[in-house]
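Look at one such:
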Amino acid sequence: MKTMATKPAKSRCAWAESDSLLREYHDTEWGVPVRDSRALWELLMLEGFQAGLAWIIVLRKRDAFRKAFKGFDPLKVARFKEPDIVRLLGDPGIIRSRAKIEATISAARIYIEMQKSGEDFSSFLWGIVGGKPIRNEGPVPAQTPLSVEMSKQLKKLGFKFVGPVIVYAFMQAAGMVNDHSPTCFRR
């Protein structure tokens, strides 16, 4: 009688083991370099909504966020007015924070102004990290000098909810920093 060999489980970053949605996100998205300006803007906005909360909350609400914010199309979001804010504040599918909603609308306008002035959002962000992913060695920090610098530059442009810790989480998610654990199959 033959015994079936079991396939060893994938070794992942510990934070991704507790939930199937986190595992899927980790295995397919987190840390994959994102170069698309609109996708980077969406991710930065979602990281801002995550401020003070667990990422899994945002991840579970991401589809509702995309619907509520018109696919995170900056041109559409930039046109949001008070009735849209009221609509969003009444949407139980998203995180209903007036400050974060208003920050997202303002960020859409900043994004468009950057485009109009010839500055590509992706090039702007990736330029801060030297254009290629940074492979972190050692303990994973909450922030780095580069996240502090990116935060300062984003704040100077008028972005909100872009402190160094939020920005570092964004950099990890967008693949600007490779913080997969040494034993993770995604490293």
The domain at 33-178 is CATH 1.10.340.30 (Endonuclease III; domain 1).
